[in-house]
Structures
1.
Amino acid sequence: MTAEEPSWAVARRARYTHEEDVAFLRQAIEVSRHSREHGNTPFGAILVNEHKEVALAQENVEIDTHKCTGHAETQLCEAASQSFEHDYLWQCTLYTTGEPCAMCTGAIYWANIGRVVYAMTERDILAQTGSSEQNPTLDTPCRSIFATSQKDIEVVGPFPELVEEAAAVHAGYWN
């Protein structure tokens, strides 16, 4: 650690196997199902701590509240930053059904979450939403945004074997 590096930046995060990542992504997909069942857009995210336990789960909320920042990831980051310390969050992984948009990527960065895992890309999401005014997809990979940051946030995804499963929750929603 150099004098400029904060203590959380040098802490080691838990290692995950591919199978563990897939299992947690399936939990996030289940949250997206609940989101749709509750009348919200079909996205979901979970926060997993360094002990590989789910600390938070979050659906999208913008439909009921007309909240433009109601994406699952943004709402999860807001709740996490109010509940946990930066050091704790740096050890956590955010699992999400779709690649975080630019807004959500910024929220993940500012919340200090150290690892992001997603099932399908922004382009996969666009294939589901089309030209829907409700979800005008930004085709900006989260890796590109994180690459411009001062933090070494680990990004894992997409998972080709889960794209169909994650996309199935969207079937019939956007048209």
2.
Amino acid sequence: MPSPNPAATEFLNNRRSRPAKTLGAPFPDRNVLEKVLETAARTPDHGMLVPWRFVVLDPASMPRLAGLAESHAHDAGADPKKARKQFDLGNLVVMVVASPKPSEKVPELEQILSAGSLCLSLVNAAEAAGWGANWLSGWPSHNRGFMTDLGLKDHEFIAGLIHLGTERMAPAERPRPDMAEITDWVSE
């Protein structure tokens, strides 16, 4: 019989993303953030290809990112104010970049799923370390021009923008899925 970890189960049952707009100072410093990133990197990675990477965006980079998002929104016919909003509100953001590697054994889809897993792992690692965290994407993170301006290679894309900081207000609990509606049991 396995040995349960009640503290981990309680953490997972009670974890809740913190809206980015509610995260304020102080923010994790580089030493603290490096430890959070190390914890997050312990995510499923079939073939040990490390098909992702981190780009840490500090508060000084937010005005430039907001401007880039606004500029690309104009070009794409999207709402410029909405495109720049998360960067106008952002402070410390870790951009998780999906960077699939050529592999005969590990399909690209598995590598992309690993990058998504890394995003959630980063949120959980930050929250376990006492920080508030929120995984966002939004229109700019799906725009090739925006990604190119951020230095991403042609085969890379933004899997998530993880906002980090100190929680200023606890979010309300939200409704959770009805497990009976989303679970099928196959016995034969």
3.
Amino acid sequence: MNISQIISYWGYPDEEYNIITEDGYILGLYRIPHGRTNKNNSARRLVVYLQHGLLTSASNWISNLPNNSLGFILADTGYDVWMGNSRGNTWSRKHTSLETNSQEFWAFSFYEVAKYDLSASIDFIVKQTGQKEIFHVGHSQGTTIAFIAFSTIPKIAEKIKIFFALAPIFSIEHTKCPLIKMANKFKSVIKAFSDNKDFLPKTSLNSFVGSKFCSLHSFDKICLNILFMIFGSDPGNLNMSRLDVYFSHNPAGTSVQNMVHWSQLLYSTHMKSFDWGSPHLNLVHFNQTTSPLYSIANMNVPTATWNGESDLLADPADFKTLQSEITNLIYRKTISYYNHIDFLFGLDVYHQVFHEIINIIQDNL
């Protein structure tokens, strides 16, 4: 199923929009305007925007049963739920002038996602709903682009009432994620085989492996171990009957340049722009010979964070550094046994995270 079909399957209303960024990318934006039982409420609903992470898509917010998927839970609680998709993933692979198979289309990393995609999505939602401020939830790279956008684009930051950061990432100096380390070690090989374009896109193989392979009891442990190898282990906190859904929709793709950008941060203590590989090219792009650093010291958006001590990608040591830089931290919680995807799919994620998000929203109306 695509995202609209998943929403409709569970009996929720769905709306789909194609929005265009300032640099011409066409993004799939999805909306659940209300829940299954509160559709007759005429009061204007508060907006909550959900932004996915690296190599995933908006489907992550609705991949579990309705009582354990944040998108559906928020809609049933009475909120107007919007879910974005970053350029290059399954639902955002079009451009107004560039061909999808061109190198020009894939010449982006998470900086462009922050500067153009997130800005376009938030601007569109605010205009469509007439609300001056919205609540923002990000996961993984979805938090990275928010930190960059909210600290560098004041007109976007002022539209965010509270930023909820799940498994937040702003540096990966200590990351133990094999995928990022592989991208760094074999980046020349990856560039050659992919023609420096897309990285791990969703294909028919995803659907086959997910629906035919991971759904078999004899192979589900293999699929589970693949997830844990990349994101960290948390045995017993994943609904094994949903593995076919997770693998059918993930990975959802990004650009090789984005993965290279992440790999450049492996040995850096600071978040910085994409290094184009030479002082001359950096001078062309940034008007300086080195890639500029990002700082969130001036970001005033009220921020709540949840992180896991068993997270291979968002390492606790890196989170500690990030936490010290957030100037308006209104809430933080560390969950000892959580890995990177527990914040999306964990069996107890409603009790550990989701209900706290709702409580914080209710306390700040």
